[in-house]
Amino acid sequence: TQLLEQSPQFLSIQEGENLTVYCNSSSVFSSLQWYRQEPGEGPVLLVTVVTGGEVKKLKRLTFQFGDARKDSSLHITAAQPGDTGLYLCAGVMDTGRRALTFGSGTRLQVQP
Amino acid sequence: GAVVSQHPSRVICKSGTSVKIECRSLDFQATTMFWYRQFPKQSLMLMATSNEGSKATYEQGVEKDKFLINHASLTLSTLTVTSAHPEDSSFYICSARVQGTNYGYTFGSGTRLTVV
User: Which of A14, A57, B57, B92 could form a disulfide with B49 if both were Cys (CB 3.0 to 4.6 A apart)?
Assistant: First the structure.
């Protein structure tokens, strides 16, 4: 059982469309991060959210951390082919465990 | 910024042989490093937490005698896959938590292991 469930698992959209990726858990996280990974490379950090209800914007990307710190969402506006990749949420559990727990991943494909 | 250098990036080995993967923190000291495995089209799964100067902590289901972890210095952690089998073929990634930042983790570029 995946501790962090992402949905959808796969998304294929046209350039210019908007999309939202969800990351859900029954556990509380002290912080949650979003990464993007290209094939054959390590994940690259996009953002870290720490406070329940926090919203962060990074150009066309908007990240939200749930009030209870159990879920998060990533919204992309006007998607571009360069946004194609594997999006991963990852969290540090509130139990004091130091390792990041990764979500199941969302593979995004943006068609030109 | 904090960088973790991982080598080799790709390795092909024969069944039954051992392969060592290195991760070095280049401009910071990493008392703890994390080793992940990623199968095709899947997410990263934590294998073990490597602690400098002490034994690694392995996740449930990960064989400690097969995946040997050594963290002998503050800048180097190694993962040795012993007696490799084709089912060990995977993408292995290391990560370190950057000291001084509450939430910063940096990742190596990964090692693609193929066992033939």
Answer: B57
